Amino acid sequence: MIDVMFVLAKEEGMKKIKLTGLFLALVMVLTACGGSNNKQGGDQEGGQAAAGDSSTLKVAVAADAITLDPENYNDVYSESIMAQIYSKLMDFDSEGKLVEDLAESIEQPDAQSFIVHLKDGVKFHNGDPLKASDVVFSLKRARKSTKYAYIYEKIDENSFETPDDKTVKFKLTEPDGSFLAALAHPAVAILNEKAVTEGGDNYGKNPVGTGPYKFDSWTKLQSISLTRFDDYYGDKAKSEKVEFRIIPEANNRLIELESGGVDIAYEIAPNDVKKIEENKDLELLRKMDQSVHFLGLTVDENGIFANPKAREAMTHALNMDEIVKTVYQGVGKVATGPVNPQIIYSASDQMKPAKYDPELAKKLFAEAGLKEGSHLKLYVNDNQQRQDIAQIVQAQLQELGIQVDITTLEWGAYMEALKNNQHDMFIMSWNPSIADPHYAMYSPFHSKNMGEGPNFMFYQNPEVDKVLDQAIQLMNGKEREDLYKKAQELVDKDHPWIYIANGEQVVGTRKNVKGLKLRASTTQKLAPVSKD
Fold first, then answer.
1. Which of 56, 177, 459, 531 is deepest in the core (most CB within 10 A)?
2. 459 and 465 Cβ atoms separated by less than 8 Å
């Protein structure tokens, strides 16, 4: 999903040494100023509990959800909440293995046919029993989704059969080697048809699922509260309530964790890692994830980066090793390709980063029409690391005579601005909800997704489209691997992304928090988590 986002090259003379020191000082100042007068830690409206409430698990997150409707979301902050509310036919366990969830079993008589047998005793949060008709409704809805039709449009909607309330049969119009894994995607969380119909346009604010927690309340930009669902079909949630507190500033999330205002804090800033490690009351959890953090370049025909030489110039204009070391301070590692190395068929280990060469960059910029004094619009959300990266990008390009105007927005406004193509550049990350090369490549780089996250580059290449469309029809094997590696090479030559880093989940908890096992996804499951 969209969101979230680390060796100095040899110094080249005293100017370079001074500039590096400036960058380090700049990041220190920015981090120190990261606080806000709007301290989002104490009790607030929306059901926030007192700090000493042992029945409520309090979690600090960096941004608010946009919607709790699985069909309409496309961001990790919404997904983090929905993971507690909804269940799917399939899921991934904490080790990344595909397992049955609402499905007791799924048969595949052939490459295009599926027979789903549902678990007994499953109830929705409104008390309705799970029925085969709810599964049909959910899959048909996903098939027509403006955001996820590209995954589910191969479902033959005329093929559905429900011989009883616990069995669903359907077919695909053509083979899809990733479809079983696709049934674990949050977009096909199984919905209660009655609740969705009655909710109408407001359903995303009043979700009804079958998960371990049910929705309680939502105060925008402040908190989202969930309550344990005692009729959950699986192991009951350990905590009676979960409260997500929206605290954009990393410094404030740490303060709340230190004071006991929250029990868990996501997206710990690199410069806060040591503080947690040295605090006897806290624990630090780390796990490399499947993301690629990147600087996206708008490549549509009206954009500055429509000229491929301007994009090539960017690959040489930024000292990414220096940026990563300065900002991330040992968290994650420098990225070299469009697919994270932890995902099968990634070609990143065979790709070499472009050489930092400011003189070549100046030459290419000039050939592309970007002369000294040209302005570029760089958009970021209110994430401290991304703001720090933006400041360093601004400083490095200024040395080449290119002026960078930075706009910082709250997450929801940021996504809207990118969709409306108001930017020349933006900083984001892509961590696919399914660890498969199809999902790593299709959303960012297929032309069908232009203007949808994370393809806010408005990127299209007919050859890339063709290769991706061929690869999805194949089961895992050499032919599928070759196609996905070819697609990565084509994208790499086009430079719609300037790779920054492969990310790492860094989460802080109070010492009394038990049962949190980090996943490589940015979405954590909180039902097994409790506190002493």
1. 459
2. no
Question: Shortest CA distance to 66 belongs to which of 527, 426, 381?
Answer: 381
Sort residue 62 into left (φ over 0), alpha (ψ -120 to 50) or beta: alpha
CA neighbor of 31 nearest in space, from 292, 351, 353, 387: 387
String of DSSP letters for 158-169 = T--EEEETTEEE
- Is 164 in contact with 101 (CB distance < 8 Å)? no
Instruction: For residue 171, give the H/E element and its range.
Output: strand 167-171
**359 touches 513 (CB < 8 A):** no
How far from 457 is each of 40, 340, 381, 417, 422, CA to CA, in Å?
33, 19, 16, 12, 11
Q: Which residues contact 33 (CB under 8 A, 6 or more apart)?
A: none
Q: Is the pTM of this model over 0.85?
A: no
- Which run of H or of E encompasses 514? strand 513-514
Burial environment of residue 38 by CB neighbours within 10 A (0 to 12, 13 to 18, 19 or more): exposed
Asked if 5 contacts 501 with a C-beta cutoff of 8 angstroms, the reply is yes
What is the amino acid identity at position 27? V
Q: pLDDT digits over 138-164, tens only? A: 999 999 998 888 889 999 999 999 999
The β-bridge partners of 107 are 115
Gap between the Cα atoms of 357 and 317, Å rounded: 6
The residue written with tokens 């409260």 in the block is: 243
Residue 207 gets which letter from DSSP?
A: -
One-letter amino acid of 211: G
Among 323, 401, 427, which residue's Cα sits nearest to residue 23? 323
Tell me the torsion sign for CA atoms 472, 473, 476, 477: negative
**Closest C-alpha to 298, from 399, 188, 426:** 426
**Strand (E) or helix (H) holding 114:** strand 113-118
Dmax over Cα atoms in the chain, in whole Å?
Answer: 77
Residue 202 has pLDDT above 90, yes or no: yes
What backbone torsions phi and psi does residue 241 show, to the nearest 5 degrees?
A: -135, 155
- 125, 208 in Cβ contact below 8 A? yes
- Tell me the pLDDT band of 432, cut-offs 50, 70 and 90: confident
Written as six digits, the tokens of 181 are: 């894994």
Least confidently predicted of 3-12, 69-78, 287-296: 3-12
175 vs 474: CA distance, rounded Å:
7
Burial of 140 (0-12, 13-18, 19+ CB in 10 A): middle
Count of other CB atoms within 10 angstroms of residue 105? 10
- Angle, alpha carbons 166-172-174 (nearest 5°): 160
- The residues that bridge with 390 in the sheet, in sequence order, are none
Are 460 and 450 contacting, i.e. CB atoms less than 8 angstroms apart? yes
Instruction: Report which of residues 390 and 383 the model is more confident about.
Output: 390
